[in-house]
């Protein structure tokens, strides 16, 4: 039998700089830090968005792994955000898309924009400081 009552609990991001990544999500999206457990051998910062039940779990990167900082290497051609519509990313929706887009530009964040074919939903793709793909979509206007 398939699981019932499924909902998204959290998204986790591994990072070598917890505070830098937390600040990024707090400043751009309004996430707030919430109490997080002590894991002993690694640090975490848990964030929650105040208008939803969406949580981000930022987890200290294991320094003994030789994995790249994020899914995309900073020197890779895939680091161009125009590849994200078909690549790994998470998507958040905002009701103030145009002003959010200006904030990204003011912060010097490289973006790739497009709209769905019907033109009702605008999309912007970009990377967080660790190279994780993000999409922000406008909420559909009726």
UniProtKB/TrEMBL annotation:
Domain VOC: 7-139
Domain of life: Eukaryota
UniProt xrefs under Gene3D superfamilies: 2,3-Dihydroxybiphenyl 1,2-Dioxygenase, domain 1 (3.10.180.10)
CDD domains listed in its UniProt record: VOC_like (cd07245)
Database matches in PROSITE patterns: VOC
InterPro entries: Glyas_Bleomycin-R_OHBP_Dase, Glyas_Fos-R_dOase_dom, VOC_core
Name of protein: VOC domain-containing protein
